[in-house]
UniProtKB/TrEMBL annotation:
Domain Helicase ATP-binding, residue spans: 283-449
Protein name stated in the entry: Replication restart protein PriA
Gene Ontology molecular function, alphabetical: 3'-5' DNA helicase activity; ATP binding; ATP hydrolysis activity; DNA binding; zinc ion binding
Gene source species: Convivina intestini
InterPro entries documented for this protein: DEAD/DEAH_box_helicase_dom (IPR011545), Helicase_ATP-bd (IPR014001), Helicase_C-like (IPR001650), P-loop_NTPase (IPR027417), PriA (IPR005259), PriA_3primeBD (IPR041222), PriA_3primeBD_sf (IPR042115), PriA_C (IPR041236)
Keyword Nucleotide-binding applies: yes
ATP-binding keyword on record: yes
Subunit structure: Component of the replication restart primosome.
CDD domains for the chain: DEXHc_priA (cd17929), SF2_C_priA (cd18804)
Keywords: ATP-binding, DNA replication, DNA-binding, Helicase, Hydrolase, Isomerase, Metal-binding, Nucleotide-binding, Primosome, Zinc
Annotated ranges, domain Helicase C-terminal: 546-720
Enzyme class: isomerase
Length: 804
């Protein structure tokens, strides 16, 4: 028996509409509408996309007017029962709208875009302003196609009845064809072209060489550009000379790294690995939800445990969700997983195009996939029958989404583990204090790997005091100790990793005479120097301006850059060690798709001596020939206004030290710092996570911070600084009158970055003992804040991990 009403969450992210609406199911759709499908519904004066979250025969109260569903957008549900339940729970937990959570769970490609069909009416009068409309009669358009002036005109003409506008709702990606090229099969033609080519036509020569190696093959334009680095002008020339032919193909969009991996055999687990493995498998085989904290030093073989446990689970007919931080989802890691599981792996990361992501999602949805490897948002992969969830580097801040909905993938992973009654492995060499404390209490089961796998040993760590090292000498990024050790490695043909810690730190311009620092007028932040494009840029809003030659404040010409970036360090390296071959790895050099993979591959093949980079070099890389790791500036994060500062510093130093000495030869680490006595540095020097944990826990207890307390951050913002200050003070007074007396209220205070994208930000921090004790009150606060007119906004962040 089909139900006659559907509960629908409509695509309007506001507090007032954050509830299911009842729609009637018309007779012709009765057998088509299912829970978890997208539908098109009338809402107010508009038509919108909505998600069916429930079906019912219950007729709503007589006095409500029920509208009917217009059409169904899916043939099969895009959300299953589990993901629907998760969306409801998560919306509550992270104080987000249900619709926002639903859209986050699904790939972008399934978020409808709204398109319009414009039809001119007989009353339409052509004039200069409306000329552009003539070509659009009967055409499908998007609002973004128009200037705001044109939009106003359309709206006026619509009101006057000169044209009609009908809304169409479509998937962002329907059937997608891509531009592609087929290389000619005629080798003679190419040989002839080679002979006649002008000597300076390098790009065309390159294209011809590539073409001759791939006769008759088809490549999408994107692939061709990635593989050859040729300009589109060269490709056009190739087409006009008939070396290539243009095609439109529908190509299976698969991430390149997963194709044709070499198969790899399992290693024999050592005793500690075997013990961990067995406990995990016992939980899996008895269908028990059990979180494990796998605390294993760097190089102890955690990944081998994950992979073998995953294999067992797949063998037993269940599926595996494997999460790694974006930054550690290197081609190395993807290859390792693909090598064990072959084509039954799906990969989800931010480097994929929307289409690739959608195609991987559909493979999972269809049940073609046994193992999903991915970064944060992969936690929503539509796997069914999950038998194991792995969260590698569980301490990583990047598991927390920084925008709404502010979910934490580690939290979601635990929720899904419980739903499927499956074990969840949280793995790290430096667990978050929160997880380690839970293991202490027995909420998670602690599994320890205390030795490096194989024959490798942990590296020795030398701390260099930069205050002494730099006294009296000129500015440099290299202490004599570090420089000497790099030279030794170069002579021995071993490799070096250098870390430049950029968190909370950047190269900026400062006047040496008066201290003036150029700031961006929107955000009031010091702007970052970009040497390649010769400008100053704000990394938050993108504002950019020229580099000043004279100080605008005191006219001195001693205004120059301060601090350091990888580019500047690379330049210094070239000066002091001209023979060293250096690969630079940072956001600028890895923006282009495939460039990170290429850089790491080159380094692995020892085409370079030194890998210089930001946080990116700290995670997950496994190069046996690296015997020296240098940390150029260990303490730039210690000064951040955040109680996690020590924890983050300790984690980063430990992680990057872990890159040294992974092969036969012993490794060494040099840490340069201005705070050599800081406990985060001394514990990292001794590889003493447990010592750090106990020390830091005492400080957290004294300071009444997590994990002893739960925290909620209330973020307020407005375009007007006074308005936000006044409202935030009011909210604070209201909270004080409503909250239990043992809830600690900090603030209100301007946020460390007080002004961002023209908005002013304040924050209030709540600390309390029971995880959900204030949820109702906070929901109430959100309701009340909605009543405030103007631009004022309130955001509630549970367990904030950063305070910038
Ligand atoms: P982690 O993830 O803990 O940093 P990995 O799993 O990357 O450690 O292992 C580090 C190195 O040790 C890798 O090169 C891996 O191949 C090797 N390894 C792991 N387990 C074993 C084992 N049981 N026997 C020999 N080598 C191992
Ligand atoms: Zn000055």
């Amino acid at each position: 028996m089909n139900s006659s009403y559907a509960q629908v969450i409509v695509d309007v992210p506001t507090q007032q509409t954050n509830q299911p609406y009842t729609y009637a199911i018309p007779t012709d759709l009765l057998d088509l509408v299912q829970v978890g499908m997208r539908v098109k519904v009338p809402f107010g004066k508009r038509d919108l996309m909505g998600f069916v979250v429930d079906l019912t025969d219950q007729k709503p109260a007589d006095n409500v007017q029920i509208k009917a569903i217009q059409s169904v957008m899916d043939l099969v549900p895009v959300l299953n029962a589990e993901l629907l339940a998760l969306s409801a729970q998560l919306a509550q937990d992270v104080f987000a709208f249900r619709i926002s959570v639903l859209k986050t769970i699904l790939p972008n490609a399934l978020s409808a875009t709204y398109q319009y069909l414009i039809q001119l009416q007989p009353t339409f009068r052509l004039n200069d302003d409306s000329q552009f409309l003539q070509a659009l009669d009967q055409q499908v358009v998007q609002l973004t196609d128009f200037t705001s002036r044109q939009r106003r005109l359309i709206s006026t003409l619509h009101q006057q009845g000169q044209l009609t506008v009908e809304m169409l709702i479509q998937d962002r990606l329907g059937v997608k064809t891509q531009r592609a090229y087929q290389i000619t099969a005629d080798d003679d033609l190419l040989v002839q072209a080679q002979q006649q080519l002008r000597a300076n036509a390098h790009q065309q020569a390159q294209l011809l060489a590539f073409a001759r190696q791939n006769l008759g093959q088809v490549f999408t334009q994107k692939e061709l550009v990635e593989m050859t680095d040729l300009s589109s002008a060269t490709l056009r020339a190739g087409v006009s000379k008939e070396w290539l032919q243009v095609l439109a193909v529908e190509k299976l969009r698969r991430p390149l790294e997963t194709l044709n991996p070499d198969r790899e055999a399992n290693l024999t687990l050592n005793d500690q690995q075997k013990q961990a493995f067995e406990q995990i498998i016992t939980a899996h085989q008895s269908h028990t939800y059990q979180p494990f904290l796998l605390e294993g030093i760097t190089g102890s073989g955690k990944t081998e445990v994950y992979l073998q446990a995953a294999q067992q689970v797949v063998q037993d007919g269940r599926t595996v969700l494997f999460l790694v931080p974006e930054i550690a989802l290197t081609p190395q890691m993807i290859r390792r997983v693909s090598a064990r599981f072959g084509p039954s792996v799906a990969v989800l990361h931010s480097g994929l195009s929307e289409g690739e992501r959608y195609d991987e999602w559909r493979r999972i949805q269809r049940g073609d996939v046994k193992v999903v490897v991915g970064a944060r948002s992969a936690v929503f992969a539509p796997l069914t029958n999950i038998g194991l969830i792995i969260v590698d580097e569980e301490h990583e801040v990047s598991y927390q989404q920084q925008d709404n909905p502010r979910y934490n993938a580690r939290q979601v992973a635990l929720w899904r583990g419980e739903y499927h009654q499956a074990p969840v492995i949280l793995g790290s060499a430096t667990p978050s204090l929160e997880s380690r404390a839970r293991a202490q209490k027995g909420l998670y089961q602690l599994l320890m790997l205390t030795k490096r796998a194989g024959d490798a040993h942990l590296p020795t760590v030398q701390v260099v005091d930069m205050r002494e090292s730099l006294a009296g000498s000129q500015e440099t990024n290299f202490s004599p100790e570090l420089k000497q050790k790099i030279i030794e490695r170069l002579q021995a043909h071993q490799q070096v990793v250098l870390l430049l810690n950029r968190r909370g730190f950047s190269s900026f311009v400062m006047c040496r005479d008066c201290g003036y620092v150029p700031r961006d007028p929107n955000c009031n932040l010091a702007m970052t120097l970009h040497l390649d494009s010769h400008c100053l840029k704000c990394h938050y809003c993108g504002y950019q301006t020229a580099i000043p030659h004279r100080c605008p404040q005191c006219q001195s010409n001693r205004i120059r850059y301060y601090g350091t970036g990888t580019e500047k360090v690379a330049m210094e390296l070239e000066k002091i060690l001209p023979e060293a071959r250096v690969i630079r790895l940072d956001q600028d050099t890895t923006r282009k798709k495939g460039s990170l993979a290429k850089a790491l591959q080159d380094f692995g093949q020892q085409k370079a001596d030194i890998l210089l980079g930001t946080q990116m070099v700290a995670k997950g890389l496994d190069f046996p020939n690296v015997t020296l790791v240098g940390v150029l500036n260990a303490d730039t994060a210690l000064g951040l206004p955040d109680f996690h500062a020590s924890e983050r510093t300790f984690q980063l130093l430990t992680q990057v030290s872990g890159r040294a000495g992974r092969g036969q030869t012993a490794g060494e680490v040099v840490v340069q710092t201005f705070n050599p006595e800081h406990y985060a540095i001394t514990f990292a020097q001794k590889h003493d996570y447990e010592g750090f944990y106990r020390y830091e826990m005492r400080l957290r207890q004294i300071g009444q911070y997590p994990p002893y307390y739960y925290t909620i951050q209330i973020q307020t913002s407005d375009l007007d600084e006074n308005v936000v200050a006044v409202h935030t003070a009011q909210i604070t007074r209201w909270l004080k009158s409503q909250l239990n007396r043992d809830v600690i209220i900090l603030g209100p205070s301007p946020q460390p970055i007080a002004k961002l994208k023209k908005r002013y930000y304040f924050q209030i921090l709540l600390k309390f003992k029971k995880p959900h004790e204030n949820d109702e009150l906070l929901q109430d606060l959100i309701q009340r804040a909605q009543q405030i007119k103007g631009n004022f906004q309130v955001n509630i962040v549970r367990n904030p991990l950063t305070f910038m």
